[in-house]
């Protein structure tokens, strides 16, 4: 059995925890619900799956290379709540204090880091598991690479991709480009929906 590298999308699960957890505060009255939920997720993964290595990947503030390519990228997203912004800033020190390795790079999103690390891991003889709820990660599924969505307790590998979308995993990138992504404000090919994209 190959060693496994788990790559965790920090901001995806911090956002999820913020909206799923009750409004918890510490002794100073500061909000900590997102941090608590996120830490619990990390520890749950470590205890249950016992991967040989874990890296927690973070977004950085400011624009990415995608904003330079397309100035409307994520332009329709709502502003982040102040309480969540505060906890996002505290998440990396907390993650490091728990003993997890953190990775970030200015100008890139956590997704980009996860993609690069996954490819390097597979090339080095490891299996890579992308822990995220972001459907964009599905385009990375292939030999040695799977996606795990903690919130749905769902795994996606090559056979499951084909069952869900009706296309091979290697075609997911093209499929996503054709249908677009409303959450990122990225338009798809006009007049072509998911059914048409599969046929193409």
Q: Can you describe this structure?
A:
The chain is an alpha/beta fold. The chain has one domain: 5'-nuclease (Rossmann fold, 3-Layer(aba) Sandwich). The protein is built from 8 helices and 6 strands. It has a 6-stranded mixed β-sheet, sandwiched between helices. A hairpin with a 4-residue loop joins strand 5 and strand 6. The longest helix is centred in the first third of the chain and has 17 residues. The radius of gyration is 18 Å and the shape is globular.
Structural class: alpha/beta
The CATH class turns out to be Alpha Beta
Average pLDDT across residues?
86
- Helical fraction equals 40-55%
Described by strand count, sense and barrel closure, the largest sheet is: 6 strands, mixed
Strand order of the largest sheet: 3-2-1-4-5-6
Low-confidence stretches: none
- Proportion in β-strands: 5-15%
Tell the overall outline: globular
What is the gist of this entry?
This protein is an alpha/beta fold. It has helices at 10-20, 33-49, 65-69, 82-97, 110-123, 158-165, 172-179, 194-199; strands spanning 4-9, 53-57, 101-103, 127-131, 145-149, 154-156.
List keywords for this structure.
200 residues, single chain, globular, Rossmann fold, alpha/beta, six-stranded mixed sheet
